[in-house]
Amino acid sequence: MFLAWKEIKYAKTRFSLIVGVLVLVSYLVYFLTGLAFGLAQDNRTSVDKWEAQAIVLADEANSNINMSMMPQGLINDIEADEIAVLGQTASVVSRDDQTEAEQEENKISVTFFGIDSEQFIAPNIVEGEMFQEDFQVVADISIHEEFGIEIGDVLNLAGNDEQVEVVGFTDNAKFNVAPVLYTTVSTYQDVRFEAIDDSDEGRVSAFIIRDDDLDSVELDNEDLELSTISEYIEEIPGYTAQVLTFGLMIIFLIIIAAVVIGIFMYVLTVQKSSMFGVMKAQGISTKYIATSVVSQTFILSVIGVAIGLVLTMGTAMVLPSTVPFAFNMYFILIITVLIVLFALLGAFFSVRTVAKIDPLEAIG
Q1: Residue 317: C-alpha distances to residues 41, 85, 141, 283, 314 (Å)
Q2: H or E stretch including 92?
Q3: Interval 137-151: pLDDT, tens
């Protein structure tokens, strides 16, 4: 380690170039990971807020909540510890206090969740209050940060003559990248079907199950299908494809980084063949020299990924709220370990070169 650090201090410019490459590669990997995680979270944060174990959809919906419709009276055909009713539909809203031209320009895509505010899937309130009656909504706070919607604002619904009033905000409530508006089941029915039906025949989208023992959950109706939350999330349109695409890009970037570092260290080692030959002639062991090369790679890779991580954190602070970027410390730790580990693996090619150096040939 001593020899490795002394050489880095002696040839600052040369090793700065290697660190620079590592910074750029690690910065790109961290940034893409943040985008991938943020985009994935925007698809599922409202589902994670349920803290539920399963979801029951209509059997014919093929695990797609957008296509699931069933009478809310079917809740009586389910036996579980806790059951919550959910109506879900996508919509477009615009502020009522804007001109027609401004409304046309500032349309907001949202997802309505029709719920019972007394059941466990009711959202936490970070500002304002829970809806008390029909056509009041609790919105994800991102609709305030990105579009300036305030508590008390009235929103027009596209394709519907009704309006809803924002009475509160919650956080981390997005579904399919759109902010969620929580409201009553009756309001959901009006938005989706333009008719309210409070009877058992009134249609909803799903029943959410909270039960630690899913084997004990019973469905007494063949028209219902139970899926675990993880199975359901994988079926969200586009979710799995996005995660796999970004995952493969990140893996390939890490491998490319390892190859680049390995090439750099190999070239440096070849350039220093004569010096290593002299060291061997002086009785310094191959193990000591090889340890120095590996130590150099470890030091350079740690410095590179640390600077790359700091740059990524700085970038995250100035990104607009519309960019789906989020940190996950678990992923950050794994990526950091992988980059350093692959860099060390690349350095072992240089170790092999060191071992083959003949002192007599190297000195010439």
Answers
A1: 18, 38, 18, 53, 5
A2: strand 82-95
A3: 999 998 998 888 999
